């Protein structure tokens, strides 16, 4: 980027979310989320075990597998999902660490597209906009549909590049 060129707000807040994500100790996924009201930063969070409890780097990921019924071309299929359940997701930590009154009408910038559970919670949290960068295709259909039902602005920064050394490979 041209050093004289000022960062736009989307880039500014997403860069902060990526910086926050570097605190995560889960080897599967580093997710950062920030709460923004107007142009004011009101909270930051990343995915991790509860404080004071061994995290994924100490105790290893706690992998759970579950199955979800989906319909594809008129056929019912079971989709297998594997995830680390040791951590509280960044979006959920953000809700734990912020006040309802601060969230009313605010935006969340999150490095990764929220999973269904996080999306469900965010939809009931008072926030009115979610901005993400990396897609999470497994849940995107139902998450996008729910956000439009709720009237929450849900958008992806497609041409965004994270700051170097903050982005990690994601295993799905
Ligand atoms: Zn983990
Ligand atoms: Zn989640």
UniProtKB/TrEMBL annotation:
Gene3D superfamilies in the cross-refs: Cytidine Deaminase, domain 2
The positions annotated for binding Zn(2+) are: 89, 115, 118
Cellular component annotations (GO), alphabetically ordered:
cytoplasm
Cofactor(s) this protein requires: Zn(2+)
Nucleus: is it a keyword of this entry?
no
One molecular function GO term is: zinc ion binding
The protein here is known as: dCMP deaminase
